[in-house]
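Late entry, (3S)-3-methyl-2-oxopentanoic acid complex.
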Amino acid sequence: MRLKSTTGAVLAAAALLATGACVSQDTTDASSDSALSGSGTGADCTIDETVKIGAVFSLTEAAAFAGTYQQEGLALGFEEVNAAGGITYEVIQEDDKTSVEDSTAAFEKLIDRDKVSAIVGPTLSGMAFTTYTDAQSAGVPALGVSTTAEGIPEIGDYIFRASLPEEVALAASIPAAKEALGLTKVAVLYDNADEFTASAFNTISDVLTEEGIEVVAEETFETADTDFSAQLTSVLEADPDAVILSALPGATVPLVKQARELGIEAPIVGGNAFNSPVLVGALETAAEGLIVGGAWSAASDTTGNAEFIANYTEKYGRAPDQFAAQAYTAAYLLDQAVRADCDANREAIKDNLGQILEYDSILGPISIDENGEVHQEPVVQIIQDGAFTIL
Ligand code: 1QQ
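Prediction complete; structure with ligand written out below:
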């Protein structure tokens, strides 16, 4: 489809050092299978053996709001990539049930039993800090498509992400909200039990300081909390111009509803976790005015986006979201990394995934650097009349 540039340029001295941990690699696995190394290059690459890609998403429990879209997006992406010919990918899908234990078991199965060439996922940063350490030790490339907390690519040189860091999303949404709404004082509420939301709090504090916005209330809660009246009463008394909220949808829904019931009318500003139609559906009218920083918008005229939305909607009977869009993009990024040297072994994918210099994706122009970090423009949206609109 829309591949603009190639990978494969070898960045000589940039080889990454593993992060201190002793890395033992299984030499009998996909990292040394000659049948996974093909002939031809780029679009002409042909690999005889089916390339197995593991996928670990939260298909059930709290993070299923994202995981089910990810499963669908990734499947659509690989369906298209397979149709291009030369290489056949098989996705082995696992459900981590939004649990660290299940995520760890799924990674182990994919690495040791299925001997996959690479793994996409998991859904939450809270699982990734454990599972990526395992993937790194086993020498298996892992590509995050929604793991946005600080420190993820730093886990090691087999760890990559195609998911806009929450730092970048919030560094866009907070200044955009300041400009649109003239913010001078805000309340900050965050879930301090989740790795992603707690890490986002650091960014929120930094951005607010940089923007000269005063914090008039700061409140914490935990992922499974359902009653936010104590925190919201403090927010109401502080009378902020806006509420900056770092939470997963499970807490966001009751929290925002209770805020509105209590009479807090201030706009609510957040990042990647808010870029979900599931959230809007659950919040109904309470979602109005929510300001969302993220990686993708249905309203963006990025290359292939309209076609992606049409194909996805036809296949699954519902419109895609950011999580579907990022997983879909991952199929193309992995294919590009495999085609660079026409080699689907773990080492080749690891060497080439960090050298995607410019890929014109549905998320806009995207690159992955030699440290495994993604670079792309964030999108800031506001929910108006139940729909995401670019701010
Ligand atoms: C993370 C996230 C979540 C919003 C993914 C669903 O960004 O855990 O890093």
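Residues 1-31 have pLDDT under 50 and may be disordered. Will revisit in the morning.
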